[in-house]
Design a protein that fits this description.
Blueprint lengths: L17 E4 L17 E4 L4 E3 L4 E5 L2 E4 L4 E7 L2 H6 L1 E3 L4 E3 L11 E6 L5 E3 L4 E9 L23
Antiparallel strand pairs: 1-5, 2-11, 3-10, 4-9, 6-8, 6-11, 7-9
């Protein structure tokens, strides 16, 4: 049985997002291709991340994440391979209420190499994705199904 997926040309509707540049010479984040899900986040300063160090790389941006959304800060696919840096906490989460005048978006990176890594102003290290969120309303109850196991239980 073949499964056919028909692609449609569906343009996404941009969501207005308020942004403040702490330095007016910093470029606004940009989507690098028309199909890009994330916009690039770049360093706003020159710095060195020592071997084995976790560092906060400033972007010079305060982004007002729309209510009902979260800004996910993900590594660019080339950052670990070309630079030896990875987003230290896996994915950075920026809540919609983190938008005060000094609430700068920073990229938390880990240098996993044996050498210092130089980061230059303008280096694109991460990508941001605006993601809709659903908040849970907890309803406590007893489990209704038997435990199925986990952490490799299915093979």
């Amino acid at each position: 049985m073949a499964l056919w997926v028909r692609q449609r040309n569906v343009d996404t509707v941009p969501v207005p997002v308020s942004i403040h540049r702490l330095d007016p010479s910093i470029p606004l984040p940009a989507y690098q291709t028309t199909g890009a899900a994330g916009f690039d986040l770049a360093s706003s300063a020159d710095m060195v991340v020592q071997s084995g160090e976790v560092a906060l790389v400033p972007t010079g941006l305060v982004i007002e994440v729309p209510k009902g959304h979260v800004l996910g800060v993900f590594a660019r696919s080339s950052t670990p391979l070309k630079r030896g840096l990875m987003v230290a906490n896996g994915v950075g989460v920026v809540d919609s209420d983190y938008c005060g005048p000094a609430d700068e978006i920073k990229i938390e990176v880990f240098n996993f190499t044996a050498s210092p890594v130089a980061v230059k102003r303008g280096d694109r290290l991460a990508q941001g994705l605006l993601i809709p969120v659903v908040r849970a309303e907890w309803e406590e109850r007893e489990p209704v199904a038997p435990s199925r196991g986990g952490f490799g239980a299915t093979g």
